[in-house]
Write a structure and sequence with these properties.
With about 110 residues, this protein is mostly helical. The chain has five helices and no strands.
């Protein structure tokens, strides 16, 4: 790994250019590698505390992304519409079906008359 860091930071075969003997092109990648390694060590060291916080934030976000709430919402709307249609059909097809047929005929006659 050290050789990869040295190769990516251009230390092999490049002359020193800065006041401390390092060029800017070689220090920045080295600092990024040090930051990544120390971040990984911090996550490993404080895993239990971080895991609880990540799960507290991640679980609601995961529930939003999984779209179970959208499925439940659509299913409830379909069920409510089915209940309404079933009740309307019960009224129209029940004992008063002849009366409703007369009302529909009179309504059609009034609307077509004008």
């Amino acid at each position: 790994m050290l050789m990869a860091v040295l190769a990516t930071t251009r230390w092999m075969g490049t002359p020193p250019a800065g006041p401390l003997g390092f060029s800017t092109g070689s220090v920045v990648p080295l600092l990024l590698v040090i930051l990544a390694v120390s971040g990984g060590f911090g996550v490993w060291r404080f895993e239990s505390g971080l895991r609880a916080r990540v799960e507290a934030v991640g679980n609601p976000l995961l529930a939003l992304i999984r779209l179970d709430w959208l499925y439940q919402l659509v299913w409830n709307i379909i069920r409510a519409l089915g209940w309404i249609i079933h009740n309307i059909a019960g009224v129209l097809e029940g004992e008063g079906a002849v009366l409703w047929a007369l009302v529909a005929a009179i309504l059609a006659w009034v609307l077509l008359k004008h």
